[in-house]
Amino acid sequence: MVLPTATSPMATVSRPASRRAEILSVKRFVTPAVVLIVLAILYFWLSNRSLDSIESRTLNADYIIARVREHLGLTVVASALVAVLAIPTGILLSRTRSRVLKGTVLALANVGQATPAVGVIILLAIIWQTGYLTALVGLVIYSFLPVLRNTMVGLQQIDENVRESAFGMGMTRNQVLFRIELPLAVPVILAGLRTSLVFCVGVATIATFINAGGLGDMIVNGLKLQRYPVLVTGAVLVACIALLIDWIAATFEDVLRPRGT
């Protein structure tokens, strides 16, 4: 047995993988690879079927791209509005000492989340109007709670000693918020936004009931007309978009996560 000596080379110390290596690892790209395989299988399945006139009018590139664009538009705009509205509201609620105000806002958000999504959108259409704007408001109401609650939890879980240390260094309340608290709460807030995004992708399918477009058109038309290739294509596209958006959100979450958290 060879014993180590003072002149023998030192054993290599394993270091944790860097953030860049973790983000660009092979495991990271499993989800988009699976989505591509599923879409390829769907394409070959449709290519080998003889489509009737109704199916041909629906399963063409122009129609599918238009529905995907509408679906993504609803999802992205609704998620952006949720982020703009829910994060500042969560910050304000985490600062207030009024239990009445905090309980009222959380109760309203809980009502929006607990009510079935189709009920929220149909109710809005009855008392207001049909179309894109109503579907957008319904999506924002339904997806508001995860971001609001995660913002509050992310800020409340910060160690009080960290805040006291920052104040002791002469920071103002706003400096403590933007330099200490929000960066530490970013992982929890991003987890809420990720949940909200996936909610929006699924709920946007029922926007078709109030004439707001999206991939729900394909699913509902395929079901009503009993054209199962149309139905399957719409459902597979929604599932693939949900997986891709969740993957993009997870990547951003890892990129924006502060070091050491």
Description:
The protein has helices at about 20-25, 30-45, 55-60, 60-95, 100-115, 115-125, 130-155, 160-170, 175-205, 215-225, 230-255. It is mainly alpha-helical and about 260 residues long. Helix 8 (about 160-170) packs across helix 9. The longest helix is centred in the N-terminal third of the chain and has 35 residues, at about 60-95. It is flat and about 75 Å long. The model is unreliable at about 1-15 (pLDDT under 50).
Question: Top keywords for this entry?
Answer:
single chain; 261 residues; mainly alpha; 11 helices; 74% helix; disordered N terminus
Approximate shape:
flat
The total count of strands amounts to: 0
Radius of gyration: 24 Å
Going by helix content, strand content and strand pairing, the class is: mainly alpha
> What's the pLDDT, averaged over the residues?
83
Classify the helix fraction into a percent range.
Answer: over 70%
The description of the largest β-sheet is: none
Share of β-strand residues: under 5%
- The unreliable regions are 1-15
Per DSSP, the total helix count is 11
Order of helices and strands: HHHHHHHHHHH
Q: How many angstroms does the end-to-end distance come to?
A: 42 Å
